[in-house]
Design goal:
It comes from Thermosipho ferrireducens. One of its GO terms (molecular function) is S-methyl-5-thioribose-1-phosphate isomerase activity. This is Methylthioribose-1-phosphate isomerase. The protein is about 40% helix and about 15% strand. It starts with a strand and ends with a helix. It is built from eleven helices and 17 strands. A seven-stranded mixed beta sheet has the order 7-6-5-8-11-16-17. It folds into two domains: about 140 residues, Four Helix Bundle (Hemerythrin (Met), subunit A) (Up-down Bundle), CATH 1.20.120.420; about 200 residues, 3-Layer(aba) Sandwich (Rossmann fold), CATH 3.40.50. Helix 1 runs antiparallel to helix 2, helix 2 runs antiparallel to helix 3 and helix 2 runs parallel beside helix 4. By secondary structure, the protein is α/β, with parallel strands linked by helices. Bound molecules: ligand LNRAV4D5. The site of the ligand CSC[C@H]1O[C@H](OP(=O)(O)O)[C@H](O)[C@@H]1O has 16 residues, from helix 2 and strand 10. The site of ligand LNRAV4D5 has 16 residues, from helix 2 and strand 10.
């Protein structure tokens, strides 16, 4: 079975990824023919975005199974090798819980099935289910979230929580797409999102391709845009939502949330339930990835800071639940108290 979206293409034999490091200057693709290439693509952010890396890792798991099934003399040995595949993919990036959620789901499918015959087909179907469920969830989330936006609203977003951060359609940008599809005139202010520039490079590119009016601002302009009354709402994605509603998302999100609170602007988080981690009690328990210093000292491949300068480069921060107006999921809009109301999403 095959699958093709803006972010990825499963050919039945390999996984083709749009190289998000090159957008908007080039639209080029990388073909992964084995799980180690998939792991490298996630680590190097060829593909990025919590749901996108979850689905990508699921297909990496399938490629690993294809690689090891013919060299495993027993199913137990096969399971051992597949644990190695899972660990390799899990060790790529620590913050987005979707990565671990997807790998755990693939491993559970493998162990529940329990024997060789047709296992590759079973795993491929599960990976495709994960991908298709993400698209469905994004559209459901979009419909719920669109009810929070009025015709004529201007929405500020941070980073890229669009089709490129998911299998397709997007979370935060999915809400904006849904509102536009309902006929509402929505404008977007996109934070450039230093240092990796997901906003400038990916969000602006996605929205302009859709014909949705987008204004690019540098991250330090967000507060002034709010003070001038230009922003009606903030919508961002998430990489992990703790049981108490604390939200890990791209670095700079916390700053935007504090500014939104200061200016009485609603701050919404759009995320599928696969991003909610009830096993993580609070934001203090979320591992925050630190990335290469060159992402800060260089821009467009050119050095912009002195050699050997100290650098702090956390890829994410945590926004306290009290700063989050509501969490938009595919099961509905969740309001505080998050401890109780997030749990209910998994009880139905
Ligand atoms: C819909 S999840 C998008 C989420 O992922 C991004 O992180 P990265 O680009 O480092 O993978 C960012 O936190 C986005 O909000």
């Amino acid at each position: 079975m095959k699958l093709k979206t803006m972010t990825l293409e499963w050919t039945g034999e390999s996984l083709i990824l749009i190289d998000q490091r090159k957008i908007p200057l080039e639209e080029t693709y990388i073909e992964c023919t084995n799980y180690k290439e998939v792991a490298t693509a996630i680590k190097e952010m060829v593909v990025r975005g919590a749901p996108a890396i979850g689905a990508t890792a699921a297909f990496g798991f399938v490629l690993g199974a294809r690689e090891y099934i013919n060299t495993s003399s027993s199913f137990e040995i096969f399971l051992e090798k597949m644990n190695e595949v899972k660990e390799t993919l899990a060790n790529t990036r620590p913050t987005a819980v979707n990565l671990f959620w997807a790998l755990n789901r693939m491993e559970k499918t493998l162990k529940n099935y329990g024997y060789f015959e047709k296992i590759l087909e079973v795993l491929e179907n599960e990976a495709i289910n994960i991908a298709n469920e993400d698209i469905t969830a994004n559209k459901q989330m979009g419909a719920y979230g669109a009810s929070l936006l009025k015709d004529g609203d201007t929405v500020l977003t941070h980073c890229n929580a669009g089709a490129l951060a998911t299998v397709d359609y997007g979370t935060a940008l999915g809400v904006i797409r849904a509102a536009v599809e309902q006929g509402k005139k929505i404008k977007v202010f996109a934070d450039e999102t230093r240092p990796y520039l997901q906003g400038a490079r990916l969000t602006a590119w996605e929205l302009m391709k859709d014909g949705i009016e987008v204004t690019l601002i540098s991250d330090n302009m967000a507060g002034w845009a709010m003070k001038l009354g230009k922003i009606n709402a903030v919508i961002v994605g998430a990489d992990r939502i703790a049981a108490n509603g604390d939200v890990a998302n791209k670095i700079g999100t916390y700053m935007v949330a504090v500014l939104a609170k200061r200016h009485g602007i609603p701050f919404y988080v759009a995320a599928p339930t696969s991003t909610i981690d009830l096993n993580t009690p609070t934001g203090k328990d979320i591992p925050i990835e630190e990335r290469n210093h060159k992402e800060v000292t260089h821009c467009g491949g050119k050095r912009i800071a002195p050699e050997n300068v100290n650098v702090f480069n956390p890829a994410f921060d945590v926004t306290d639940a009290e700063l989050v107006t509501a969490i938009i999921t595919e099961k509905g809009i969740v309001y505080p108290p998050y401890n109780e109301n997030l749990k209910k999403l998994f009880e139905e």
